[in-house]
Write a sequence for this structure.
């Protein structure tokens, strides 16, 4: 059976070149970069090369890049660390309603710690209106965090416009660029932000490593206390093999970005343009133009996402869904709900996220196997039966 | 490790008794699309036994497998026996369900029960009308 991995928003495979670069640091080059002997020197050198590679990916200075254990840690660190470092100045923070849970739940934790939180809404495409950010600002606002793009629906946010607003009021602006860094051009100067999160496993690097860039001069309170690793901002011996892998993945992402974007966009557009002719009552989610190149997200009416996901899996196709049933919390995707989708429609959500190894044959295969799956589940669906009956009654 | 047991997968992939019954003796609808699952059971009763059962389900793999299993367990049983089908016995027959999916087995048992109650109340009404 054909195997088609279309869940690159969850994680990407490790590139062979990245694995090769990592291998020495899982073997003889095992040193601790904080040590002053030869083993330490070798590890430190590798780590600093990786830091420079990550900095180059986002147009930053290497010394402003902090390695973390994941994208989630980067976001936790940014939200809590940037807010706590400024709590004498003010205790109000602003994030969008569609942030990843690592931002949203960190913000909720700050609320429990006495901060005030404002959630900025999004429109039906999942776009934040910069004017809504402006309206949400208060005298004591110390942090704004809006994601660069939403990995679930692919919408890219107007970060530069929001940065202009936060700059006027001298408010620290963080962006979660986990869905974009290493995939589309991300330049801290062009975005105008003060802090930015990224993660290695989103662009063919290893899992368990991320980075947080914080502009020089912006204060951040460490989450982990201990040694003086990462300039005293993140204690704990660095995960050198993973850090090296992140660096290599960043270098490859930068040099191959244009070709990758072209390839992913073609696959995405092929699927999204051919889908409506194959399946009726499909609603494409996210912004029609300003979206991630590899993101094809949509909702199929009258049926539920997990059932589709399982039947696709039985055909060798790996995707994800934002339905309540697929989440352990049994809640439909907060992103789709914030975009104003009715709950029943959000239950039918599917996300196909393409990667560099996918081909147009993969898209053809999906277009072949998905329609019978939808048909089969609709034949089982009481909602579809009601829709058909209502249609007949009306005509 | 897969989330679902082989039995759940088997019922999900080959669900029994999918469909509707024309002029059913009882209908039971539970759940709503907001919580993620919705089930409708249709029954035909003959000599106090469930002569035929069909269902339609909007929901996840577990919801579909539960519906299929409930219909199979209940078919041919007397109404009293069928009403004794519990969420627990459905989950057991399916060789277990993930914790967050227990509510699916509740819905399945409820939908069947509701269909039987619907039949019983209709019967009462007809009798009452005649009497």
């Amino acid at each position: 059976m054909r195997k088609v991995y279309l869940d690159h928003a969850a994680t990407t495979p490790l590139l062979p070149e990245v694995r090769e670069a990592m291998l020495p640091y899982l073997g003889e080059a095992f040193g601790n970069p904080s040590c002053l002997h030869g083993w330490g020197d070798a590890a430190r050198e590798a780590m600093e090369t990786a830091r420079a590679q990550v900095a180059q990916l986002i147009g930053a200075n290497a010394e402003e890049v902090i390695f973390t254990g994941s994208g989630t840690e980067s976001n936790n660190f940014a939200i809590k660390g940037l807010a706590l470092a400024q709590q004498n100045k003010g205790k109000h923070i602003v994030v969008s309603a569609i942030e990843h849970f690592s931002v949203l739940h960190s913000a909720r934790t700050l609320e429990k710690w006495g901060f005030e939180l404002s959630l900025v809404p999004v429109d039906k495409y999942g776009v934040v209106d910069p004017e809504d950010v402006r309206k949400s600002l208060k005298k004591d606002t110390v942090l704004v965090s809006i994601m660069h793009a939403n990995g679930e629906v692919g919408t890219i946010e107007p970060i530069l416009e929001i940065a202009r607003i936060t700059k006027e009021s001298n408010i620290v602006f963080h962006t979660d660029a986990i869905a974009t860094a290493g995939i589309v051009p991300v330049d801290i100067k062009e975005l105008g932000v003060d802090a930015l999160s990224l993660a290695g496993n989103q662009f063919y690097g290893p899992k368990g490593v991320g980075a947080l860039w914080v502009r020089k001069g912006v204060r951040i309170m460490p989450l982990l206390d201990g040694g003086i690793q990462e300039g005293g901002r993140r204690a704990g011996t660095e995960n050198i093999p993973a850090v090296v892998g992140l660096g290599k993945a960043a270098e490859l992402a930068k040099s191959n970005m244009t070709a990758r974007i072209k390839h992913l966009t073609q696959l995405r557009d092929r699927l999204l343009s051919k889908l409506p002719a194959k399946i009726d009552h499909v609603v494409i989610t996210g912004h029609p133009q300003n979206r991630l190149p590899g993101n094809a997200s949509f909702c199929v009416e009258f049926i539920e996402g997990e059932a589709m996901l399982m039947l696709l899996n039985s055909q060798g196709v790996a995707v994800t869904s934002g339905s309540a049933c697929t989440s352990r919390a049994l809640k439909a995707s907060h992103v789709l709900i914030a975009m104003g989708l009715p709950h029943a429609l959000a239950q039918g959500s599917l996300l196909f996220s393409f990667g560099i190894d996918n081909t147009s044959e993969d898209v053809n295969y999906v277009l072949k196997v998905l329609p019978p799956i939808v048909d089969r589940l609709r034949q089982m669906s009481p909602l579809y039966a009601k829709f058909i009956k209502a249609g007949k009654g009306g005509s | 490790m897969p989330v679902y047991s082989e039995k759940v997968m088997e019922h999900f992939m080959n669900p029994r008794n999918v469909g509707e019954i024309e002029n059913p003796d009882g209908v039971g609808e539970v759940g709503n699309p907001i919580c993620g699952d919705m089930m409708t059971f249709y029954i035909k009763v003959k000599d106090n036994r469930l002569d035929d059962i069909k269902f339609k389900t909007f929901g996840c793999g577990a919801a579909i497998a539960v519906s299929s299993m409930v219909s199979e367990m209940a078919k041919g049983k007397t109404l009293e026996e069928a009403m004794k089908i519990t969420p627990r016995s459905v989950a057991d027959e399916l060789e277990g369900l993930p914790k967050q999916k227990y509510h699916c087995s509740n819905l399945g048992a409820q939908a069947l029960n509701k269909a039987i109650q619907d039949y019983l109340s209709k019967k009462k009404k007809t009798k009452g009308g005649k009497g």
Summary: The first strand of chain A starts at residue 4 and ends at 5. The first helix of chain A runs from residue 16 to 22. The radius of gyration of chain A is 22 Å. Chain A has a mean pLDDT of 96.
